[in-house]
Write a structure and sequence with these properties.
CATH topology of the largest domain: UDP-N-acetylmuramoyl-L-alanine:D-glutamate ligase
Catalytic activity: UDP-N-acetyl-alpha-D-muramate + L-alanyl-gamma-D-glutamyl-meso-2,6-diaminopimelate + ATP = UDP-N-acetyl-alpha-D-muramoyl-L-alanyl-gamma-D-glutamyl-meso-2,6-diaminopimelate + ADP + phosphate + H(+)
Distance between the termini: 55 Å
Pfam families: Mur_ligase (PF01225), Mur_ligase_C (PF02875), Mur_ligase_M (PF08245)
CATH class of the largest domain: Alpha Beta
Radius of gyration: 22 Å
Keywords: ATP-binding, Cell cycle, Cell division, Cell shape, Cell wall biogenesis/degradation, Ligase, Magnesium, Nucleotide-binding, Peptidoglycan synthesis
Number of helices: 15
Largest sheet: 7 strands, mixed
GO molecular function: ligase activity
Pathway: Cell wall biogenesis; peptidoglycan recycling
Length: 446
């Protein structure tokens, strides 16, 4: 089958493209901006790319168009597909119906920690000889890519609650029909598509409703919102983590109820990552992996790109990149870095409020609290930001610096740092390559 993918360079759709190619399909695709690193991965996989959405692409005559959720009505190629009544579907639906149906799917859902927990779980399965396929919204360092298809019956997927496509406003994860599902946590997010937390809880309820009686739901027992989800109907086996009823931590020691299975030894700092690891262990046991073997494999987990990823060190100043963009994730990331550094240096937090929810200002009142443990806060306020960053972050006092250009933000961040300090850059986008700008300025002594 020849499939043509609209929006192919996004992390998820790029992963779908690579899986489709590995399954033997001919794959072509287009996007508004075709650029590395995703374009390099796709070309290396034998996928032809086209810049833009010219309706003339229908001359390729694929068997099916797969539409990414970044594609909206008014897109010229999409309108041509609709006008000509050409066959189309969404990425999640194609994935669920074509590839996942024959697999034991292990899906990781939640507001925070999806990418890290998916990566931890995938590595546990790999280290324990299961050779899983996977599709993750990041790049696990142990593998070097975000997706692969194998001959294993096991497939790990990051189960995103964001909407599926222009014609299907259900969450992506309702298409995956997992046999094992991790529900990490649940907070309000994605204000551009969900009016409130209850609406997201409904989507999680829909996910649970698709699961078989002999499936397993691994649930954070300390999350009230997930408790409400389960109260609306639970049809599968339920195993708790972060809870005395199931898997829980005492320090770094992992217990199931009253039985200890040993200490979690992770390269990743922070209590939240220990919780991610305990959830991954709980999920792995569902397919017969011994807890001790899962815990042992975690010792060789190398982390995930853009999750506390060190980009470089110059003159004793470390520049770190992280995807954190929700107030809870920002707080936990700073806390994790502080636990790793101790009192040996300052944390200069550099923030870009870039996500749709952040741009709308929905979370702005929570930002001062999430940033309070940083020693200095440098915020890049894009001129198009829909709220006053200086006013919203004013409770941070003298340690706040608000700039309106990326170059100025890099200059201020680099000048605030001294040997032994860490500059923590947080954004869910590329942030204009600010990491390299800061490292360059540090080399110059600016």
């Amino acid at each position: 089958m020849h499939i043509h993918i609209l929006g192919i360079c996004g992390t998820f759709m790029g992963g779908v493209a690579q899986l489709a190619r590995a399954a033997g399909h001919r794959v072509t695709g287009c996007d508004a901006n075709v650029y590395p690193p995703m374009s390099d991965q796709l070309v290396a996989a034998g996928i032809d790319l086209i810049e833009g959405f010219d309706p003339a692409q229908t001359a390729l005559k694929p068997d099916l168009y797969v539409i990414g959720n970044a594609i909206s009505r008014g897109n010229p190629l999409l309108e041509k597909i609709l006008n000509d009544q050409l066959p189309y579907t969404s990425g999640p639906q194609w994935l669920g119906e074509t590839l996942l149906r024959s697999h034991h799917v292990l899906a990781v859902a939640g507001t925070h920690g999806k990418t890290t927990t998916s990566s931890l779980l995938t590595w546990i399965l790999q280290a324990c000889g299961k050779n899983p396929g996977f599709l993750i919204g990041g790049v696990p360092a142990n593998f070097g890519h975000s997706a692969r298809l194998t001959d294993s019956r096991y497939f790990v997927i990051e189960a995103d609650e964001y909407d599926t496509c222009f014609f299907d406003k259900r969450s992506k994860f309702v298409h995956y029909r997992p046999k094992t599902a991790v529900l990490n946590n649940l907070e309000y997010d994605h204000a551009d598509i969900f009016p409130d937390l209850h609406a997201i809880e409904t989507q999680f309820h829909h996910l649970v409703r698709t699961m078989a009686q002999n499936a397993r739901v691994v649930v954070n027992g300390q999350c009230e919102a997930l408790g409400r989800v389960l109260d609306r109907g639970l049809y599968s086996e339920c195993v708790y983590f972060n809870d005395q009823r199931g898997w829980h931590l005492e320090g770094k020691e992992l217990f199931y109820k009253d039985k200890s299975f040993g200490e979690l030894k992770l390269a990743l700092p922070g209590h939240h990552n220990l919780l991610n690891a305990s959830a991954a262990v709980a999920a792995a046991t569902h397919i017969g992996i011994e807890p001790q073997d899962a815990i042992e494999s975690l010792k060789t987990f190398q982390g995930v790109k853009r999750r506390m990823e060190v980009k470089g060190e110059v003159n004793g100043v470390t520049v770190i990149d992280d995807f954190a963009h929700h107030p809870t994730a920002i707080y936990e990331t700073i806390a994790a870095l502080r636990s790793k550094m101790g009192d040996s240096g300052k944390i200069i937090a550099v923030l870009e409020p870039r996500s749709n929810t952040m741009k709308m200002g929905t979370m702005k009142d929570r930002l001062p609290g999430s940033l309070k443990e940083a020693d200095q806060v440098v915020c890049y306020a894009d001129p198009k930001l829909g709220w006053d960053a200086e006013q919203a972050l004013a409770p941070l006092g003298e340690k706040l610096h608000v700039l309106h250009s990326i170059d100025e933000t890099a200059v201020v961040a680099s000048r605030l740092a001294a040997p032994g300090d860490s500059i923590l850059v947080m954004s869910n986008g590329g942030f204009g390559g600010i990491h390299w700008k800061i490292l360059g300025l540090l080399k110059k002594g600016a």
